[in-house]
Design a protein that fits this description.
Strand 1 and strand 2 form a beta hairpin. The strands form two sheets. The chain has a two-stranded antiparallel ribbon with strand order 1-2. Strands 3-4 form a two-stranded parallel sheet. It is an alpha+beta fold. The protein has seven helices and four strands; from the N terminus they run αααββαβαααβ. Helix 1 crosses helix 2.
């Protein structure tokens, strides 16, 4: 399973735990809530992540959508979609600044004894272009970009930024998957 997908699942589950603890307090006056700061939440997410990565992949989770997690990490692109069908929405200029894939790679590298992780798989940019060129994104594309060339340039620059950041933290092989 792709790291971003797994981290998103873990964050969703940890957030659910927090909400359950809050609602339980309302139901049971004697129950104390889990007060946790950002660092504590991060430790909880990391522990849950390591628990899930040791388990076999859940085939019911649609792995055909793993690329959306990467695209949603780009600046200028947010999550949209109806129900369980994910989609992209363009909200501004595309940038790869501070992409979560870099932090996910660093985290995994630090979990492996000897830190020998050196490969990262990214979705090919053409998948992002195909999503952004869908008819429901046409108005946003015209509002943000004057031409397709400008959008492609920004997407290429975002990938360059992410790949440079990944190299800086130790990725020596970057594979683009379709």
């Amino acid at each position: 399973m792709e790291f971003g997908t797994l981290m998103m699942m873990v964050r969703h589950r940890v957030h659910g735990w927090q909400m359950a603890m809050r609602s339980q307090k309302g139901l049971h006056r004697g129950t104390t809530t889990l007060n946790i700061n950002a660092a504590g939440l991060k430790r909880m997410e990391d522990a849950a992540f390591m628990h899930h990565i040791r388990k076999p992949v859940d085939k019911s989770h649609n792995l055909n959508w793993w690329h959306f997690n990467f695209f949603w990490g780009l600046q200028g692109i947010t999550q949209s979609g109806i129900g369980l069908v994910p989609a992209l929405a363009l909200t501004g200029k595309i940038s790869g600044f501070n992409h979560p894939a870099v932090a996910h790679f660093e985290f995994m590298r630090n979990q492996i004894s000897g830190g020998t992780v050196d490969k990262q798989i990214l979705p090919a940019p053409e998948l992002c272009l195909a999503e952004l060129k869908r008819s429901d994104n046409a108005r946003a594309l015209n509002r943000v970009y004057q031409s397709d060339t400008e959008m492609v340039h920004d997407l290429a620059a975002a990938y360059h930024q992410i790949m440079s950041d990944l190299y800086r933290v130790g990725a020596r092989t970057i594979q683009l998957n379709r």
